[in-house]
């Protein structure tokens, strides 16, 4: 095997900066998987330790996509789970696991891009600003994916992304009364005067 670009020791893979890796692109040590940033993983793309699954940010998981510990199930953020938990979406529990959600809804239609190159310069964006940029470019179908999510809550969506999809509320303000005549202001614009009927 051609072992190249290793900065660590006793690696049989490529592009490793740790030691004793048989996989590639590891910055940790004792990994037999690939693209791990921590140690002792036999899976791939783990930032935790001692995982035999893939894409874990927690440790000692034999399942995949876990941010918790000691899970043999998938998509868990807790400890010692053998199955997949139900998803909380918009702060309410659903009856869907992540796998069931992906089967039904697919993957997100758009992602906020926090950094990009423009004119050979790296430009970074704040999270909500990035959401606004990508939302302005999105198609109606892409936007609808988010609006159709279980438990969709426009206020929560606004608080997290800065995107306001709430129905506009008319502000009906009577700014002055002269006898039985009033000036009516709707959404900060004065439109007309009306007669106010006196009630008993």
Can you put this structure into words, describing what you see?
With 200 residues, the protein is of the alpha+beta class. The chain has 3 domains: 1-84, no CATH class; 85-167, no CATH class; 168-200, no CATH class. The protein is 18% helix and 19% strand. The protein contains 4 helices and 7 strands, in the order E-E-H-E-E-H-H-H-E-E-E. Strands 5-6-7 form a 3-stranded antiparallel beta sheet, with no helix packed on it. It has a two-stranded antiparallel sheet with strand order 1-2. A two-stranded antiparallel ribbon has the order 3-4. The longest helix has 11 residues, at 127-137. The radius of gyration is 27 Å and the shape is flat. Residues 174-178 have low confidence and may be disordered.
Indicate the radius of gyration in whole angstroms. 27 Å
Largest beta sheet: strand ordering: 5-6-7
Cα shape: flat
Strand content: 15-25%
- SS-based class: alpha+beta
Give unreliable regions as ranges.
Answer: 174-178
Order of helices and strands: EEHEEHHHEEE
Q: Helix coverage percent of residues?
A: 10-25%
Short recap of the structure:
The chain has helices at 98-105, 127-137, 140-147, 154-161, and strands spanning 86-89, 92-97, 115-118, 121-124, 172-178, 181-186, 189-195. With 200 residues, it is an alpha+beta fold. It folds into three domains: 1-84, no CATH class; 85-167, no CATH class; 168-200, no CATH class.
For the structure shown, list the relevant keywords.
200 residues, alpha+beta, 3 domains, 4 helices, 7 strands, 18% helix, flat
């Amino acid at each position: 095997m051609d072992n190249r670009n290793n900065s660590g020791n006793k690696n049989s893979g490529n592009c490793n900066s740790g030691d004793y890796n048989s996989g590639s692109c590891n910055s940790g040590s004792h990994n037999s998987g690939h693209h791990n940033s921590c140690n002792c993983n036999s899976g791939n793309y783990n930032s935790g330790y001692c995982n035999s699954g893939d894409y874990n940010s927690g440790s000692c998981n034999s399942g995949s996509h876990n941010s918790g510990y000691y899970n043999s199930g998938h998509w868990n953020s807790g400890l010692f789970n053998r199955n997949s938990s139900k998803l909380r979406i918009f702060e309410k529990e659903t009856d869907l696991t992540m796998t069931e959600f992906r089967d039904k809804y697919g993957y997100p239609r758009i992602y906020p891009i926090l950094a990009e190159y423009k004119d050979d310069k790296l430009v970074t964006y704040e999270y909500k600003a990035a959401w606004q940029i990508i939302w302005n470019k999105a198609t109606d179908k892409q936007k609808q994916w988010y609006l159709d999510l279980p438990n969709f809550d426009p206020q929560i969506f606004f608080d997290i992304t800065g995107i306001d999809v709430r129905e506009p509320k008319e502000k009906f303000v009577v700014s002055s009364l002269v006898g039985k005549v009033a000036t009516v202001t709707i959404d900060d614009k004065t439109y007309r005067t009306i007669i106010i009927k006196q009630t008993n």
